[in-house]
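Deliverable D4.2, example record:
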Amino acid sequence: QVRLVESGGGLVQAGGSLRLSCTASGSIFSINVIGWYRQAPGKQRELVAVCSGDSTNYADSVKGRFTISRDNAKNTVYLQMNNLKPEDTAVYYCNARGLQSSVWRPYDSWGQGTQVTVSS
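Output generated by the structure prediction step:
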């Protein structure tokens, strides 16, 4: 089983910055894809940013403001969020997909979510 733990959410004024972290633990052989999603009240969960191998992809709404990075040695992914806007308010979830080492089966794991609130 692969567990994801997020941290770094909070309340910030518009124009401010936050940095989210997500660390994976458990029977991990590989992390092939890792990234961030968010869900605002009354809306569907949406992709924010994702790392797959050496490539990264961002939602159009966050390009130029958010940066995703990963530390493979620590099984950790970060999301640096700058110039935050009220519409960025949501619960942010970490997601990781890869192969478990103990049973040699794929996994698709989610974190518990961290709240980001941007005030105007």
